[in-house]
Amino acid sequence: MTRLTISPVTRIEGHAQVRIDLDESGGVERAHFNVVELRGFEKFLIGSAIEEAPRITPRICGICPTSHHVAAAKATDQIFGAELPATGKKLRQLLMAGQFIHSHALHFFMLAAPDFLLGEAPAEERNVIGIARTAPEIAKSAIEVRKLGQRITEAVGGKPIHPSNAIPGGMSLALTPAARDELLDAARSGLDIAENGWEIARSLMDGVDMEFGAVETAFMGMTDGGTHAISDGEVRLLDEGGQQIGSFAGEDYLGHIREYSEEWSYLKFCRLASGQAYRVGPLARLNVVDRMGTPKADAALEEYRSVFGRFTQATLAYNVARYIEFYSACERAVALLEDPMITGDDIRAPVDGVVNRRGVGIIEAPRGTLIHDYSVDEAGIIERCNLIVATCQNNYAMDRGVEDVAKKVVKNGELTADASNRIETVIRAYDPCISCATHALGRMPIRIDLRRPQQEGNDPLGSGEVN
């Protein structure tokens, strides 16, 4: 068997591999996105007090800890029967806006940008360092706007990496007027960066390959009456043609989502109860909503739809959709910080013991719909935990997209540097967070294996590495 290995696939969060099996002519017979890591949080949360979940789960990931923090807090709100007061709700919304600013800026400017700004450069230069050398203003802007996301997380969430201020019933600390003024100045600067960067994002729509990483799926995303929403709203389902086929909130997700596994990966898969594969994340959310709800992002959405239509299956549209969400998050941050209520002191509703034995927190993380489901005993000790993250829900689409591109770019059994990067680009379009979906034991880098059936005279150990 001939095996070519890419180790690692670059510019994603976490570790995985792509396995490509060749037929006798050197073409691709099959390919799979393969994750070989152990997931553990669902088990070791059992036995913890439920109020600890918002403090433990942010440790799942250093890129999107706020998403887990808020999803867990929403679940604890239900268990303690708490209704958030107005300022507490706005602070959580601001915290989520900071999460989207930080995560989407990281992906667009630092992880995805080398694909479309440095696509012809050698692999060793096709990274954020290459961006800094060839487009230093873009690199500086990316760092500045990511800093905004971190500053919001620190000021509102209590810590810049693993926030802790979201607690049952609301928030533990109010935002001071001085902190608000500082954040508002930074948020206005961040919005200027987002507005200028739209020119780059807009250019990605020119001549986009609509069939790249082709896969036909249903879609899932949150909306508040048709407006883009990330922390409160109903989750809508669209079929492969864009027609709404259902919606849910809270524990009703079990009537719509099924988790399953495949033999080639430790990473779970998800499908709808009907058996349909579906996708989540920026592309799904823009398919689901009617509007972004902020003026500049709404104008960008109109341009996006002039190219991709009201509903699209195009995988590469993920990158532009992600930027529109980043743009909107910057606008939301400014609007929330301009609201006098944001420095109010009605930040938490009182809680007094377990009211409901089960709580389900559903939000939109940057990568897609995130579900935290906890069951507790009378004392509030976690007895069961289920976490469904976006990367698991996009796993099928990544797997099929990898095979689609591999069949187009692998010729005569040869995996070139350009071909391997094209395969990686499919995975990067989804911005997978392997750490959220699994937890590693040891060092297991992403790699691409290229295999062909053993034939007489072939070197069974023919292999190579492409970095």
Automatic annotation (TrEMBL):
SUPFAM superfamilies assigned: HydB/Nqo4-like
Entry keyword set: Iron, Magnesium, Metal-binding, Nickel, Oxidoreductase
Residues holding Mg(2+): 42, 387, 439
Name of the protein: Ni/Fe hydrogenase subunit alpha
Residues bound to Fe cation: 64, 436
UniProt key word Nuclease: no
Positions of Ni(2+) binding: 61, 64, 433
